[in-house]
Design a protein that fits this description.
The complex is a heterodimer of chains A (about 260) and B (about 425).
Chain A: E1 8-13, H1 19-25, H2 31-37, E2 39-43, E3 55-61, H3 67-79, E4 80-86, H4 88-92, H5 104-111, E5 135-137, H6 144-156, H7 167-174, H8 179-183, H9 199-202, H10 219-228, H11 233-240, H12 248-255
Parallel strand pairs in A: 1-2, 1-3, 3-4, 4-5
Helix pairs in contact in A: 11-12
Chain B: E1 3-4, E2 6-7, E3 18-25, E4 28-36, H1 43-46, H2 55-60, H3 67-82, H4 88-119, H5 124-130, H6 132-153, E5 162-163, E6 166-167, H7 173-177, H8 180-198, E7 212-215, E8 226-229, E9 234-235, H9 240-243, E10 244-247, E11 256-259, H10 270-277, H11 283-292, H12 304-324, E12 341-349, E13 352-360, E14 366-372, H13 374-393, H14 398-410, H15 416-419, E15 425-428
Parallel strand pairs in B: 3-15
Antiparallel strand pairs in B: 1-3, 2-15, 3-4, 5-6, 7-8, 8-9, 10-11, 12-13, 13-14
The chains are: A alpha/beta (about 260), B alpha+beta (about 425).
Amino acid sequence: MSRTARPRLAVWKFASCDGCQLTILDLEDELLTLAGAVEIAVFHEASSDVGEGPFDVSLVEGSITTAKDAERIRAIRAQSATLITIGACATAGGIQALRNFAHLADFQAAVYASPAHIDSLATSTPIAEHVRVDLELQGCPIDKNQLREVLSALLIGRKPVVPGHSVCVECKRRGTACVMVAHGTPCLGPVTHAGCGAICPAYGRGCYGCFGPMESPNTAALSAQLAHLGESPDAIRRVYRTFNANAPAFRAESRKHGD
Amino acid sequence: MATRTIKVDYLTRVEGEGALYVKIDGDRVEDLQLRIFEPPRYFEGLLRGRDFREAPDITARICGICPVAYQTSAVNALEAAAGVAPTPAIRALRRLMYCGEWIQSHALHVYMLHAPDFLGYPSGMALAKDAPDIVERGLALKKAGNALMAAVGGRAVHPINWCVGGFYRAPERHELDGLTDQLKRARDIAAQTVRWVSGFDFPELEQPYIFVALRDDARYPMEGGRIAASTGLDIPVADYPAHFVEHQVPYTTAKHAYLTETGQPYLVGPLARLALNVRKLTPGARHALAVSGLDLPCRNPYRSIIARAVEILFACEEALRLIADYAPPNPPAVPVPPRAATGHGASEAPRGLLYHRYRMDAEGIIQDADIVPPTSQNQAMIEADVRAFIAHNADLDDASLQWRCEQTIRNYDPCISCATHFLNLRLDRGTGTP
């Protein structure tokens, strides 16, 4: 690739809700600048122009839930210099990874009369379980500002700054009183990765962990606090089993509180 | 005329992953299948055993483009199950939030996904190279919708402020006042949008649609109401299962829906809402509609882009009215004690009627759930439209026919992630590889 060519960007989708891809289009003020600074080679949701690889950067949304998709992600990796996962599905397996804790046949029977027509693996797994991933952007959905930072850093050629601290730091920065201390509201903020801007506590509810685990979360201490606030083992298990249920730290902690 | 094969590998500018397979012999469509390949995520399975208060956050994740629709239908169903009705102030705030979702979702579709079909561009971004002003207008509209969602819901994708019973916190007046100027600009852009799209060239096609949409005595339907159809049907949402049937088709992961009584497919979405509720539009939207030349009921699916533009204008006007009248609901949520019961709920997602049913036990644990998204209801109708288009236009060359088939599917703003989900178009005229 010549030095003067624009970097070639590809956006890919696996099992997901499309919300993280939509966050790219939600960069309303920067979208047209971005479309000028990079060559958007593949972005099925937004464009019928579909280019061939190789790609300088691939953004990957969604988790792997079929044998075909497991093959497809390997082909994408082989064509991508840098591969970045966007969102909880691609990074942790998403809400659909709740099947990893149950029997797929039960889930299928709840939805389809003839599950035999459906190609589906028994698990929903993150991209990093299948191929090497260069950067993971957490969140259900990802945060627009973090996405902007990653894209800007890539264009400039520097390392993106995505802090690994907890939502608690963001509450302090925002000036929100701690909902757990002040009101006894159960909150996953102490173990959850920053990035959303601590929205939930600002709206009077506890964080529900949609950004997944922070670096080195002390989930045992948080579970003890939740039990102290009167949460049942079932309820404690459920709070870790949502959009990042399959992230190792949340998965391990949820297993301490029932099946 | 010999049979032919045309193959396209991915239908683009739709949300999710799907394919279309068409086999044509002369001007006769031998076989047509809209195949949704998107892998299923089993929401109805994973909702079992969850606390009923988790349903709005979990079902929001079915769709990143219309999470408020899922949250609304979920809370409507669960409040009905519990026998609790939210206050008018809570309902008004929900409606305000829903306006934001209509504005951003419709603006995305009109400007970035659908208009390029009429103007001969592969994407909104490509259109922006020649006509940056037009695309910037669309992005400004979308931004206004997102700003409204963020102000009420905390953020635009998967808002966090929605709970069974109401809201975690009602925004203060001053948090909404700041939106007024932006929404007034959006309203003007929306009026301009109606004029712009009504000047497009529309392929000829008239389809015998049965329209189905919510109906509300006082207002244009959005966050709730009764279910009405152009057949004269007018039923409470709880009667939905008795009148509509979903069934699994082997070639797709999304289920099809039909009217139980006649076995006919039906249409949901902007054209159906307008056909059944035009008198309840806001004055500016009614005026814009009159000037647009869209005759109702409209049975040309390509003109749905005009209906969508009119609804953007309506949603801007409605949001401005709701903000002007706003008094924060106090308390922001009514208590919803669980009980062993089944509840049904519906609302008008940007793409059409979205129905939810939940059965919970006395502790509020969900025993089973049923969700019928608009795109799965429209699937049979999408196939019928493509079939009819091809029958009238079989003389088109393969490339043009393929382009028009994709455009025909995009008329529906299909949300394949919702319907479970992938579009790849394959035209088989019998002579090429299968």
